[in-house]
Amino acid sequence: MIEAIREARNYLQDILPRTPKVGIVLGTGLSGLASMVKDPVVIPYGEVPHHPVSTAPSHVGQYVFGSLEGVDVLMMQGRLHYYEGYTMQEITFPIRVMQGAGITHLIVTNAAGSLNESMQPGDLVILRDHINFMGTNPLIGPDDPLLGERFPSMHQPYDTAIINKIEAIAAAHNIPIKQGVYTAVSGPSLETTAECHMFVGLGSDLVGMSTVPEVIVGIQTGLKIAGISVVTNLSNIFHSKAHTQEEIRKYAAQAQNNLQMIIVSLINQL
Ligand code: HPA
């Protein structure tokens, strides 16, 4: 894996005009931020050596490098999901590549279902902590110090100083924002009502199918991380109808402007 990461990183470094500082993972329906960077350099995942390619609907599958508010960012427009059939190592490969390419900060975004009535579709929620309920871990495998710590501490995966900055930015822009605990499941089937009740009992506010593996690898590689969810639907606890991908995309689109405003303001405070 080390050699694959090195080759992918070298490929990016050869193409990128400058070293990116902040990596941004754009979740389902949230890829609009990529159109806001100046002088974009677009690199489809498929062109990067050893790189897995996204198969999920609405996930484009490319890196977009450019300047956002004068800060060089490297965005993932479209992420890889465990439910697509990739291994945990494959879905987190891009985090290692971006870290190798020079990022020191990572902002992860996602669409999530709400387990907490105070978090409604269209709302933004800062991740305060997470629960890994995927039944596996991206760090499982041979111990190689080049990948990072064998047993990285997860006492504060989401950087408190960045959380406070996001709170302040949201308040200044009159954007309501909450903090919550995100539980990651493998999917792709959605949670049953009994599972939703269990997650509430475990202390979760949100449920989704991504982010946590990326954050675990990000911590192992020493990145400072922030996570923001867009609530796209209420979980089964609050109603008894199926939610659709259209509904999820509609609410993601609705929240996208606020999310973009927050990220754009945050970027030069990192
Ligand atoms: N459950 C899991 N993943 C999701 C959901 C959900 O309700 N909404 C968006 N992603």
Walk me through the structure.
With 270 residues, the chain is α/β, with parallel strands linked by helices. The chain has a single domain (2-267), classed as Rossmann fold, CATH 3.40.50. The protein contains 6 helices and 9 strands; from the N terminus they run H-E-E-E-E-H-E-E-H-E-H-E-H-E-H. The chain has helices at residues 2-15, 88-101, 160-172, 193-202, 212-220, 245-267, and strands spanning 22-26, 38-44, 62-68, 71-77, 105-114, 124-132, 177-184, 206-208, 224-234. Strands 5-8-7-6-9 form a 5-stranded mixed beta barrel. Helix 3 packs across helix 6. It starts with a helix and ends with a helix. The model has no long low-confidence stretch (mean pLDDT 93). Bound molecules: hypoxanthine (HPA). Hypoxanthine (HPA) is lined by residues 111-113, 190-191, 207-209, 232-233, 235, 248. Hypoxanthine is lined by residues 111-113, 190-191, 207-209, 232-233, 235, 248.
